[in-house]
Amino acid sequence: MRGRGRSNAGNHIATENKSSSRPSALQDSLYTIKTYKDFRYLWVGNFFTVGAQWLQVLTVGWLVLELTEGNALLTGSVVGIRTLPVFITGPLAGVLADRLDRRKIVMITQGSMACAAGLFALLVISTDLQSDPIQGPLEWWHAFIYMGIAGVAHSIIQPVRQAMVANTVPREALTSALALTGMAHPSMRIAGPAIGGLLIATLGFNWNFFLEALAYFAIVLLMVPVKLPYRQTKQAEHTSPFKSMAEGVNYVLHEKRILQLIVMSFIPNFVFQPLAFVLPVFT
Prior knowledge:
By secondary structure, the protein is mainly alpha-helical. The chain is built from 13 helices and no strands. The protein is globular and about 60 Å long.
């Protein structure tokens, strides 16, 4: 009995030592950031991407509210139009991500957004928003065009960047990498609008879009040294992109768990996200 008790105690101590030697989630995350250089660039770029998006959403809403003298319908619609291209170009972007260089897709898309944000910033800075009536070339429908372009770019960049996470770390580090990637959205959802609101209150609308353009340009620079060492190269199939997209939709419809996750992701986007679009109306 004594021998058995000693054996159980020894096993208990060994189990405790083994569990204590396991790295914590924080240690796993720090190790992933430190070890995988390509993921580190991608991870930092996520903060620029999400921060620029929320800076854009906040600033455009307030800008249209100013241009339309408080029109709540146009203020909510200008940000809402940004989500429409997801249903069209989003699935196609996933197909392109499987066929083309994902890093180049990110660089071209974010470079295009930097140019669009810079041109829109020039329109804003050329307009006197303090005069009554407002004087200058900027009209409210310019914001709709700009947000439509931003929506197309966002619908392309989102699936490509998500796919790149698995290409920059090995399989055993993927869970930690995905958790780190998810940090960008809640943190920059707070920081982005806060920075934008502070700039609007102190400097007006003039500089927010230039800051947004700089954020997109920073992402392009971050992507220059990135490699995708863990991407599995597949032989190109002689099928049309639309056929591949149809196959993907068919797979989702027949894979119950994937379909449930997608439906769950629509709930916050359709119920809670529109509230953020009309916040400028209540300020």
